[in-house]
Amino acid sequence: MTDGAARLLSRHTSKEVPSPDRKVFEAAYEHLTSRDPVKAWASGQWMTERVGGSDVRNTETLATYLPISKSEAVVTDANTAVLLAKTLDAGISAFYAPLRRTVPHKTEAGDSSPITTELNGITIHRLKPKLGTRPVPTAELSLTNTRAYLLGTPGQGVKEISTVLNTTRIHNAVTACGLWGRGLAISRAFARVRSVRGKMLMEVPAHVRTMAKEHVEYRAAMLMTYFVVALLGVSEQPQSKALWNRHASASPASPLVPDGPEAGLLLRVLTPVLKALTAKSAIAGLAECMESLGGVSYLDSSSPLDIGTNIARLYRDANVLSIWEGTTDVMADDTIRVLKGKSGSEVIATLEKWVHAALSTWEDLRKGVGVDCYIAVFEFWRKWAADIKGETSEELVLRGRETMEDLGWVVSAVLLVEDAIRDGDGVAWEVAKRWVFKKSDMRAAEAAGWANGVEWDQGIVFGGGTKVNAKL
């Protein structure tokens, strides 16, 4: 939220942007981006109300000089907040509000000296009990005569705060991968030391097969997450692409990231997809990690002795990832809105160009897994794009989750195959095959015999594998 607020304020500190409050935004931006712990600020994001929930159109907070109220807020120990409120003449607008304001203090000489502060018309009623993320306080609060500064044009609040949402949704995906990765690390460590019927768990093929499936999903999530992070970087700092190319290795990955305008279009459509899919995958993945440890993983203890196996806390924290910053259905609806909106044809054309540019480099993979991956991804993409172009918004919204999941699969498939081509690593190719073929009738793990599949399971989970010719 702090990163998102900083990005939003940075758009209103440019000299080209007329604003009487620019100095306020500049000062806040300096605090929000500071690495000095004494100077640094955190920011909250206040959008959710008891009545409206995720539908901000039902916001009841009014931007007037009269008492107003906001019922629920996250990060209530922050220094600033970005919030939505209705303006009487223009609809929902975005505002920047400091949490504290200066109170003039009368000295004995009668002079006013601003040496004290008070809460900026904010009353915190109670902290909310939550399943997880307890270190991040969520509270019920009300605002009365709160001093706030308009961000952008009145009535454009949702558009303004979308800058914050894009950033927080990407942070959400990174957090999902982090929690999931920690759970997988605990699962791997446990398999190395837990003995069952005279064998370590890591020597039990069925157990390792389940773990391998989760590691394939995790790799796909990681690659897509940091691809979208790269898109965010290029869209905010176009010159970063030139820096990549200047310092690129012999096989740079940067050609996967398009330049400015196209990067912005991909970022817009893939951010809700990424947020939704990584959240759901991490929740399901951590449940598998808990199960892989058996009963000990169900213990939720803060004892230092148990911290190494406390997947239960990771699981509790992960469950909020599919809820805040937009539920899965909200993300699916947002995805369809982008694909069928006024810039929808341009977005689909950009996606098509990106997919075909990658596939064109696979055409040299004339035998083995390469051509199979090419055919599977090409056919799947062609059908998906045709469905998007041919169906109405109402039809697509009804199966929005499926549409969103399919787009995520295509993007992850491209990234996994590109990763395998670049590294020429056998394990990377096996991961790419398994991801691609899960949408087809082929069973990659048994393609060369079940025993060989067991060996690949070991390599995927515990590492290993040898360099191979990428053009299989």
Automatic annotation (TrEMBL):
Domain Acyl-CoA dehydrogenase/oxidase C-terminal: 155-337
GO molecular function, one term: acyl-CoA dehydrogenase activity
Presence of the UniProt keyword Flavoprotein in the record: yes
Keywords: FAD, Flavoprotein
Keyword Flavoprotein: yes
Signal sequence, renumbered to the chain: none
Entry-linked InterPro entries: Acyl-CoA_dehydrogenase-like, AcylCo_DH-like_C, AcylCo_DH/oxidase_C, AcylCoA_DH/oxidase_NM_dom_sf
Family: Belongs to the acyl-CoA dehydrogenase family.
Stated name of the protein: Acyl-CoA dehydrogenase/oxidase C-terminal domain-containing protein
Classification of source organism: Eukaryota, Fungi, Dikarya, Ascomycota, Pezizomycotina
